[in-house]
Amino acid sequence: MPPAKKRARAYDSAKIRAAVLAQFGNVRAGVRTLSEEQAARPTHLGGWTVRDLAAHVTTALETVSRGLDGPEPTARELSLLDWPFATAARAADIADDTRELAAGNTDLDALFTRTEQRITERLATAPDGRLVAARTGTMTLADYLVTRTVELVVHTDDLNRAVPGLDIPYDRQALAACTRLLADALAVKAPGASTEVRIPPYAVVQCVEGPRHTRGTPPNVVETDPLTWIRLATGRTEWKTALGEAKVSASGERADLAGLLPLMS
Hints:
It is a single chain. By secondary structure, the chain is of the alpha+beta class. The protein is about 50% helix and about 10% strand. The protein has two domains: about 15-175, Four Helix Bundle (Hemerythrin (Met), subunit A) (Up-down Bundle), CATH 1.20.120; about 190-260, Nonspecific Lipid-transfer Protein, Chain A (2-Layer Sandwich). A four-stranded mixed sheet has the order 4-3-5-6. It has a two-stranded antiparallel ribbon with strand order 1-2. A hairpin with a 2-residue loop joins strand 1 (about 130-135) and strand 2 (about 135-140).
């Protein structure tokens, strides 16, 4: 795990809480429209069906509820910028739990309703500094909720790609927080200031060792849109594919990020 020496940016807690609930509501509304045939469609996630993936979305918030239901841990183990690099080790456990949750005739709407009720009730009184024991390690509630925007936005995109025409919308605050956290993770993984990565309208970060840019147009610039960036950072799209499809522009000898991506898998 790369050391999180970069100081995490500040997030507005009230906006993050609202964004998490809003994006979960967007997914819930989309899942309600799925036919049995659509729910059985494959996704690009290692054998998961759309039903599996939809069920997994609920676990993104159930982990918050369970953490708040249990005793508070005594010490924080992860900072916000540690989290992106701590997820891979738990991937197998998450996949097993998801398949078990989605097995049989699980009523997805009931599952989403129960999850939404539980998280809404618990967030109503839980303070930002409350420690939560997550799979990846203990974090503050405020930080962990920022990570939930990544889970929700990434899997919203997964669902939309798996079911043409589903078109679940993205809450603007959730999309912004997801984009910014993954951009900051790149700056942690490749510290430096020779390359500027632009993801308008949400994030600009400097990274990669080399001569520091001080004025004028940076010599090394990467620019892309938020969803392409999120797909690159999470391994949904390869760097060369995004370049070939003109989803990314990259100029300068230090603008090749292929060796740094994905950040999460």
